[in-house]
Design goal:
alpha+beta, 7% strand, globular
Length: 572
């Protein structure tokens, strides 16, 4: 077990080094231009199939020898000549310039941009791939690679943690080095290699007899890097396709995005185990690998339709420096700038726009602090609730279900509840309350519903414990699934929109990565409680319900002091 974790960690580290090296090569040419003098004057012309007009731009970029705290030292002033129009623009962090001069045809402000169809189809195929391989991974480790149940459990949790931890790498590459489109494309290719490796090494005899785990370790490492790296970037890239005049559609598109995630999940969770049973693990892993390749092709096909934005430089590193310098000065001088964020204690070293962006990003991430406890509850629907189902009557007439099929109820309910909330429940609330529900209010209600679902599970467990074995019907689990999934929809869909609209333009992917990290921490909490506590099952359910209620009040306290950025959807 320890040997595998060592190999797994080294593979993840090696993959990260390779990706960062490749990213550095792509940005090297830009750095060469910036090193050579005090100013760069560029004249460029462009034309595209999406516009009948050609355009030209003249840009002058200042590169002072010393850092100016009141301006962005690398911010070009661009004059774009398009037909009879002359439009000056700036690339300060508050704005949202296009990465290139390609003209995007004006969109109907009440319709989704054309680019969304490519992203959504890509997401369905990618999620089918991820959830499909994860559905059979534990049994593959136990039955084919002959790991013990405990070791197989550790490997699955290590893989899940890695898949959500590498979101930080993806956010960094997207916001600071490559931009969103290239980050998604390059890491998706890494993802494809990982899936292909996992499928190929599952073929009988390829890794020896008995089979060796090296192929699985390499495959899962590449998959974790790929899927984790693109998670926060894809959701931020969805938002980038909308103009300011289309900001009212963001809630609907993120609901559709979450719908697509679960659409792929439902079919892969049901189909992949059947393929594994009737064919082999290699074929069962091969189907997700093929679907992932299709996802990359679909994403690439939309390349001329996407709105893309330039990366903003070393945002993560600069933000960390701002926080570090501010803490040092706070301890040293014990004073805070009047009427400003405490981060302005670093104003003597960093430009004010970057400090404001960092302050905004931290305030958004602060609201996420209690959310790992929601995921600590939610992810137990695939573990503790499965064990609960295993002690119940699983017969539906002549049909007998397996306990590990019951969690498929969750994505099925998501497919029903996402449109129900979007088209019925939220509009009804808006009629009763004209202002509707603000994002943090929705998330608070979702946390409350998660707590209620575990109270229902606790009372059901008491009923099971006091009844003959396998006599309580599985239908009694449906209420807790409905309540928990309703909470999931109110939190997950809302948090995607909230993270995108409230994050500064230069840090959208990083804030999305922070949101994804809450899932990783939540899984860790479950492992800690499961390994250290020795509760009866119904007591454990009550414990998690009360824990969620406590952190709900923490969340409400944080939300009370949060100030919304009303004009931040696209920072234009």
């Amino acid at each position: 077990q320890h040997h595998f974790l060592g190999v797994f960690g080294k593979c993840c580290g090696s993959c990260a080094v390779v990706v960062v090296f490749v990213a550095g090569k792509f940005s090297m040419e830009k750095e060469r231009n910036e090193e050579g003098g005090d100013a760069i004057l560029t004249l460029s012309s462009s034309s595209s199939s999406s516009s009948p007009h050609s355009g030209a731009s003249l840009s002058f970029t200042r590169h002072p020898h010393h850092q100016d705290s009141d301006s962005d030292s690398k911010a070009p002033l661009t004059v774009a000549v398009d037909g009879n129009n002359i439009k000056p623009s700036s690339s300060f962090a508050e704005e949202n310039p296009l990465l290139d001069d390609r003209k995007i045809a004006p969109e109907d402000v009440n319709k989704f941009p054309i680019a969304i169809r490519y992203i959504m189809l890509n997401e369905i195929c990618e999620r089918f791939s991820y959830y499909g391989l994860r559905a059979i991974l534990a049994l593959y480790l136990k039955n084919y690679l002959l790991f013990s149940e405990d070791t197989a459990t550790v490997i699955v949790h290590a893989f899940t943690m890695a898949a959500y931890t590498t979101t930080l790498l993806g956010g960094y590459l997207s916001d600071s080095v490559l931009g969103k489109y290239k980050t998604i494309l390059y890491l998706s290719i890494v993802y494809c290699f990982g899936s292909a490796t996992l499928a190929a090494t599952a073929i009988e005899g390829v890794t020896g007899n008995p089979p060796k785990p090296w192929g699985m370790a390499i495959g899962l490492s590449l998959i974790a890097l790929g899927t984790g790296g693109i998670k926060p970037v894809v959701s931020a890239f969805v938002g980038d396709q909308f103009t300011t005049s289309q900001a009212h559609l963001l809630g609907k598109v993120f609901a559709l995005f979450y719908f697509c995630i679960n659409f792929g999940s439902v079919f892969s969770t049901l189909l992949t185990p059947i393929i594994r049973t009737n064919f082999s693990y290699a074929v069962a892993f091969g189907l997700p690998a093929v679907l992932l390749a299709v996802a990359v092709v679909i994403f690439f096909m939309g390349r001329k339709k996407y709105r893309t934005h330039a990366p903003s430089g070393s945002v993560m590193w600069n933000s960390c420096q701002i926080v570090g310098v501010s803490i040092y000065n706070l301890v040293k001088y014990r004073t805070v700038p009047k009427g400003q964020s405490w981060l302005f204690l670093a104003e003597h070293r960093f430009p004010a726009p970057l400090i404001r962006d960092t302050s905004t990003a931290l305030s958004v991430l602060l609201t996420f602090l209690p959310l790992p406890f929601f995921w600590a509850l939610f992810d137990q629907h695939a573990t503790r609730w499965v064990f609960q189902a295993d002690s119940m009557n699983l017969s539906l007439g002549k049909l007998h279900l397996d306990a590990d099929q019951i969690p498929a109820i969750n994505p099925m309910l998501v497919l029903l509840l996402v449109p129900a909330f979007d088209q019925i429940i939220y509009p009804l609330i808006k009629k009763i309350r004209p202002l509707g529900l603000r994002p943090l209010s929705r998330m608070a209600i979702g946390m409350f519903l998660a707590s209620v679902s575990f109270l229902i599970a606790a009372f059901l467990q008491i009923k099971i414990d006091n009844s003959p074995e396998n006599t309580v019907h599985i239908a009694w689990q449906l209420p807790q699934y409905i309540v928990l999934t309703s909470g999931e929809v109110m939190i997950s869909v809302t948090a995607l929109e909230f993270a995108y609209t409230q994050a500064p333009k230069s840090m959208k992917s990083l804030v999305m990565a922070g949101w994804q990290m809450t899932v990783a921490i939540g899984n860790l909490l479950v492992v800690v409680v499961a390994e250290t506590a020795s509760f009866q099952q119904y007591v454990e359910f009550f414990f998690f319900a009360c824990l969620m209620l406590f952190f709900l009040f923490v969340f409400l306290f944080i939300a009370y002091f949060y100030t919304y950025r009303e004009d931040s959807a696209n920072d234009k």
